[in-house]
Amino acid sequence: MLTGLVDPLHDPRWARLVDRCPQASIFHHPAWLGLLAEQYRYPVAAAAVFDAAGEPVAGLPLALVASRLTGRRLVALPFSDVCPPLLAPGTHPDALQLLARAVEAERRRRDLPLIVRAPFAQLDRPVDRFHLHVVDLRGGLAEAERCYASRTRRHVRKARRLGVEIRQRVDPEALEEFYALHLRTRRRLGVPTQPKAFVRALAGLFDRGLGFVAVARFEGEPIAASVFLRTGRNLTYKYGASDERYLHTRPNNLIFADVIRSACDEGLATLDLGRTELGQDGLSAFKRSLGATEELLAYTYRGSAPGPSTPSPARRAVAAVIRKSPPVVGRAIGKVFYRHAG
């Protein structure tokens, strides 16, 4: 087998590999890679192992983050909680060793550090960084609901009794409603706001059937919204936002219950609830209450050491500024920050 680089944005062979791999997520999909390249100007390539017919049987997407503030590095993959190497079904596991060599060769050619946001033991020893929570949907709706914590069932019943309504939408207005809640939530948490252009660009994924916004309404007003992205049989929870004045109506519990129901109806296999920082016990408990399995999520580093696992003093100071400032401040910081964060 040969190794080399492939253009995952335009070469149809990459899309075919993603379609073949049951473990592929939205973060491997050409549409997601194209969104990162378009919105953040990250050059994207993929290291791959090819069979005798020239088809990739293993691969890993790589983005170049070049920042005057945070330096230059290769990342697999920016703004993607977990992005493991792909291995096509029936391919000998030794292909991952060949892929690791190809990735390392590209890293050395560019003389850059590398972060793989997943375990890649053939490349280097992974380092535990987060928790990952995944809901197994393969047993169907009854089995998924059986795994709910009792408080989740209680909160879902309460939301329905109060009249909270959920709609899964793909229209631009749904993204606008999400963004308004996103502004409010990020300010409350002291986190920079994702650029509005990026949020609006998610419509391109929706147009291809790769996601939707689940919007919760109470007495006619949007009170919570979550962005879900999908490829194949795997659904990924990407962003959530809510109006804290209405959390007593339990809209987020009802959003996830509604999405799990529809995902089971469609025959999806998994719902990835995303990474959770170690020590965020409340968030981890919420995800487990939805029936998710919790496991450690390790990242793989080459040419650099992992960053601190706890917020730095500078990050805490920025968070305090955002919380005390009008929303425009969080928007301005996010517009600058995310391009360099990667």
From TrEMBL:
Kinase as UniProt keyword: no
SUPFAM superfamilies (UniProt xref): Acyl-CoA N-acyltransferases (Nat)
Coiled coil ranges: none
Domain BioF2-like acetyltransferase: 151-287
Keyword set, alphabetical order: Acyltransferase, Cell shape, Cell wall biogenesis/degradation, Peptidoglycan synthesis, Transferase
Superkingdom of origin: Bacteria
Pfam families: Acetyltransf_6
GO biological process, one term: cell wall organization
InterPro entries: Acyl_CoA_acyltransferase (IPR016181), BioF2-like_GNAT_dom (IPR038740), FEMABX (IPR003447), PG_Glycine_Bridge_Synth (IPR050644)
A GO molecular-function annotation: aminoacyltransferase activity
Annotated family: Belongs to the FemABX family.
Protein name: BioF2-like acetyltransferase domain-containing protein
Lineage of producing organism: Bacteria, Bacillati, Actinomycetota, Thermoleophilia, Solirubrobacterales
